[in-house]
């Protein structure tokens, strides 16, 4: 059996944890399984490397920054290979180019376009444990690209698909997928299994367990995988395609922090598209959006992430009086609170519990977005923990979590 395992940064944060992971890998290898291991950088290594870059330059070359950040995973992979050899097992570390992982050429956010598994299969045929650097790819010209924070998950899923792996396991510092962040909600419930669409929404809405692109790949290539703890021998959560059922369920509650709401009071209807085109051309993503109309003007409100605020302000300043009129207002320190689950937005019981709880807690709602699988609202950041706790208790008490 071919097994692909991914270990996150907390799982290999120090020597003791590297050997702990190596012992787990060894147990599977000695059962005569072929092993491909994907590693993240140790602990806070990526943040430390970013700090080092900042000490040298406030605006470093994106190429050199990727070259620097890629060393974190190379360090992890080499150390793991050494640990396995120390345990008497054959192991070899491969960087993305050696492993045949080809990507697009966008520094910091590249996407995997193909994998040539020849080198990996050659090493497996020798019964080597193959340790591969996550989070990175290589262009056809040999340039190193990083895939975005947390993208070692994506590397693992892509390899599982390319190698037709029999089993794919994501090891992390939590014991699976929960109805809320178990580090914040102590009575969060763990899913035995969850479908691709629901976990994709949870990840996109702020849950930090999995890289959202990894789930997109898993769904596209039908890669069933599990999420489990590196430190506990507990039942994992399995992520797979699950047939739709009539019963509506809440699969989880999550929050995405550092959100801004932008309000434009006067914009002519024919200029709304012009403004949104300009925003998109400047690579600024707009999320929740509402549009109101009167006899002459529209009013436009939408949310963006806080790190896009300065870029948006430049776009707005350049077009005041041309595309829109009046004073733009910005509300900072908001968070996007989301309830995820099949059909939740159109289940009156779930919606009633959601709105009643926020009303009872006197939590102001700034914007609302509904889809077939989620309810999202913007609320003050200072109210997030209280909202999460109260909603989780409400859904738990009323039996709306179906695991």
How would you describe this structure in keywords?
single chain, 403 residues, alpha/beta, Carbamate kinase, eight-stranded mixed β-sheet, seven-stranded antiparallel β-sheet, 12 helices
| Oligomerization status of the protein chains | single chain
Tell me, briefly, the overall form: globular
Distance between the termini: 29 Å
Helix content: 25-40%
Overall mean pLDDT stands at 91
CATH architecture of the domain at 2-172: 3-Layer(aba) Sandwich
Structure characterization notes:
The protein is α/β, with parallel strands linked by helices. It is 36% helix and 26% strand. The chain is built from twelve helices and 19 strands. The strands form four sheets. Strands 3-6-2-1-9-11-12-10 form an eight-stranded mixed β-sheet, with helices on both faces. Strands 13, 14, 15, 16, 17, 18 and 19 form a seven-stranded antiparallel β-sheet that branches. It has a two-stranded antiparallel ribbon with strand order 4-5. Helix 2 packs antiparallel against helix 3 (62-86). The protein is globular, with a radius of gyration of 23 Å. It starts with a strand and ends in a 6-residue tail after the last helix.
């Amino acid at each position: 059996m071919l097994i692909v395992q991914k270990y996150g940064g907390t799982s290999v944060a120090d020597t003791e944890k590297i050997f702990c992971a190596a012992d787990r890998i060894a147990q599977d290898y000695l059962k005569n399984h072929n092993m491909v291991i994907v590693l993240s950088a140790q602990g806070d290594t990526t943040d430390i490397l970013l700090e080092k870059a900042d000490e040298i330059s406030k605006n470093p070359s994106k190429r050199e920054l990727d070259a620097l950040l890629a060393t974190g995973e190379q360090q992890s992979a080499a150390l793991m290979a050494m640990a396995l050899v120390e345990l008497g097992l054959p192991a070899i570390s491969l960087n993305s180019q050696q492993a045949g992982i080809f990507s697009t050429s966008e520094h910091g956010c590249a996407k995997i376009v193909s994998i040539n598994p020849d080198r990996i299969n050659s090493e497996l045929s020798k019964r080597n444990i193959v340790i591969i650097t996550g989070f990175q790819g290589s262009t056809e010209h040999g340039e190193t690209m990083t895939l975005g924070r947390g993208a070692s998950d994506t590397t693992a899923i892509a390899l599982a698909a390319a190698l037709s792996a029999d089993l794919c396991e994501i090891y992390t510092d939590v014991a699976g997928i929960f109805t809320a962040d178990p580090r914040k909600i102590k009575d969060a419930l763990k899913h035995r299994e969850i479908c691709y669409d629901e976990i994709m929404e949870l990840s996109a809405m702020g849950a930090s367990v999995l890289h959202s692109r990894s789930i997109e790949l898993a769904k596209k290539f039908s890669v069933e995988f599990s999420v489990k703890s590196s430190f506990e021998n507990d039942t994992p959560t399995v992520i797979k395609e699950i047939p739709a059922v009539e019963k509506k369920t809440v699969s989880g509650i999550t929050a995405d922090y550092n959100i801004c709401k932008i309000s434009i009071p006067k914009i002519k209807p024919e200029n709304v598209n012009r403004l949104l085109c300009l925003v998109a051309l400047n690579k600024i993503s707009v999320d929740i959006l509402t549009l109101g109309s009167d006899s002459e003007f529209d009013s436009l409100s939408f949310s963006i992430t806080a790190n896009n605020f300065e870029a948006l302000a430049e776009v707005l300043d350049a077009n005041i009086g041309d595309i829109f009129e009046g004073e733009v207002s910005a509300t900072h320190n908001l968070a996007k609170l989301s309830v995820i689950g099949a059909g939740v937005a159109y289940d009156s019981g779930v919606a009633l519990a959601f709105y009643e709880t926020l009303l009872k807690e006197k939590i102001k709602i700034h914007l609302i977005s509904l889809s077939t699988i989620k309810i999202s609202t913007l609320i003050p950041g200072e109210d997030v923990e209280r909202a999460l706790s109260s909603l989780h208790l409400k859904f738990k008490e009323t039996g709306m979590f179906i695991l």
